[in-house]
Amino acid sequence: MAGQRWVRLDVDYFQNPKIRAVSRDARTLHLASILHAGRYLTDGQIADRSLTDVSQMADITSRWALRRARELEVGGLWIRNGAGWHLHDFESMNPQAMKEIVERDRAAWRARQTRWRDRHKGDVTA
Q1: d(Cα 44, Cα 83) in Å, to the nearest integer?
Q2: pTM of structure
Q3: Burial class (CB in 10 A: 0-12, 13-18, 19+), 43
Q4: What is the pLDDT along the chain (126 residues), one digit of tens a residue?
């Protein structure tokens, strides 16, 4: 439970009209942003300061990153807010990647491990 994280991606991702309306680089940036949000538990937020990292994941030069971000905004895939962008529908598609849920699950896992260890203290196996 505390290990590997994942994000959900619709199998019809490339058939989505919003995805089809943007360039290949914008699609790649969008995919990278979903992975970034899942990895760093940003709750679907891409901060202005994170755009460089996300664009590097997508192999998009910093020269084009802001242009592709604006393309995603116009396409309705990213929603501009005061600190950067919010990924459209991230929380409904990826509730398992929301920080509060991950932290709750981690705490429950730690508690289970502690209970198990407490029950098995002093057990010696050959």
Answers
A1: 12
A2: 0.77
A3: middle
A4: 446 778 889 899 999 999 999 999 999 999 999 999 999 999 999 999 999 999 999 999 988 999 999 999 999 999 999 889 999 999 888 777 666 776 777 777 787 888 888 888 877 665
**CA–CA gap between residue 27 and residue 45 (Å, rounded):** 17
Amino acid at 124: V
The single-letter code of the amino acid at 19 is: I
Q: Which two tokens stand for residue 104?
A: 């709750």
Largest CA distance in the chain: 65
Supply 99's token pair.
């920080």
Q: Which tokens in the block code for residue 26?
A: 């914008």
Name the architecture of domain 13-119: Orthogonal Bundle (1.10)
Domain boundaries, the chain: 13-119
Sequence letter at residue 41: L
Which DSSP category does 22 fall into? S
